[in-house]
Amino acid sequence: MPAGYKYMEDLLERFFDGETSNEEEKQLYHYFAQPDIPEHLRHYKPVFNYFEKRLEGELKGRTEPFRPVVQTGRKPGSYWITVMVGVVASILILLMVRPLFPGDDDKFNPYEGSYIIRNGERITDINIIKPELEATLQKVLQQEERMNRMLMYLTEPEDQFDLIGQSIANQRESIINAFPDDIKKEVRKIIGM
Amino acid sequence: MEQEQFKQEVLPLRNQLFLYAQRLLDNVEDAEDVVQEVFLKLWYMRSDLIHYNSIPALSMQITKHLCFNRLKVQKRRQEDLETVVLTSGGLNPAAELEQKDSVEKVMLIIDRLPSLQQTILRMKHVDGFEIEEIAGLIGSSVGAVRTNLSRARKKVKDEFFKMQV
């Protein structure tokens, strides 16, 4: 191994320019680990001691530069799953807690403020009007159902007529197409197509 | 993830990341440094990469973070310079020396280096990679890696020389 200080000076310069191989760096470490080195190179001793021994210890003692800066391991859609779970959990908590605080809402009456007029008399007694209101509501519901049935009845034949009409048109077209061209024209004139 | 797999799956992102960094930093050299650092980070995370849904998305995120960090540092430096110009006096020399000593005792040498330089030193001095291997691994030129290694080593040297004064 060449150990002249001129050679070492050259290696030293190349080391700080980032040009040395691992093998050449070992030579430098070995050189600066010796006790008798020229005066003008002596101040490099702690520097190479650092590169050879202390650097690894410092790097092992810390993780910062190698820690992932972003944690994106979240699965796609997990944000919405989290939101949904949050919403469901909130509703459940609300349902569990609500019975502990009975409020005015528990006395909620859908017929509150309702009245009926009978023979010019305004009746607000809930016990009297409630059956009347419920019977009326039933009538409305029945009426609505009847209307739905009528609508169904009215729309179904329309579709069927369309289908039949289309089928007739197709048959007529195939019959016309079976004639020679000149007759076909005449037929179309007669039927107004 | 092994070296070859890393090269095949991660390195093709280089151009995309470089353009992104360049757009954010508006500087080619800074963008190159950021991209080097992104790949070095990914290299040290290679065993965890399997847990990420998208390596390109992760790489873009790291690039973005590093660019923003760099811009923040630049801004802070600019502000510090302005403060130095504006303020006069401050601590007396004895107090300054005392403060300097205590700071130096607490701080590790490695902490005084930017993270890119720390990582390159680690690859070279601890993991034993040659420059050419590092360049091949992170898709950079040998010259670009060498520049950062040189800066890192010179910085360490300067820190030691400062302590010896």
Q: What topology does this entry show?
A:
The complex is a heterodimer of chains A (193) and B (165).
Chain A: H1 5-16, H2 22-33, H3 45-60, H4 78-97, E1 116-118, E2 121-123, H5 126-178, H6 181-191
Antiparallel strand pairs in A: 1-2
Chain B: H1 3-9, H2 14-25, H3 28-44, H4 55-86, H5 93-106, H6 115-126, H7 131-138, H8 142-164
Helix pairs in contact in B: 2-3, 2-4, 3-4, 3-6, 6-8, 7-8
Model description:
The complex is a heterodimer of chains A (193) and B (165). Chain A is mostly helical and 193 residues long. Among the domains of chain A are: 5-65, no CATH class; 127-193. Helix content of chain A is 64%, strand content 3%. In chain A, strands 1-2 form a two-stranded antiparallel sheet. The longest helix of chain A is centred in the last third of the chain and has 53 residues, at 126-178. Chain A is elongated and about 125 Å long. With 165 residues, chain B is mostly helical. Chain B has one domain (3-164): Winged helix-like DNA-binding domain superfamily/Winged helix DNA-binding domain (Arc Repressor Mutant, subunit A), CATH 1.10.10. In chain B, 76% of the residues lie in helices and 0% in strands. Chain B is globular and about 50 Å long.
Question: What is the mean pLDDT of chain A?
Answer: 75
Distinct helical segment count of chain A: 6
Placed side by side, the strands forming the largest sheet of chain A appear as 1-2
Total DSSP E strands of chain B: 0
Unreliable stretches covering 5 or more consecutive residues of chain A: 64-73
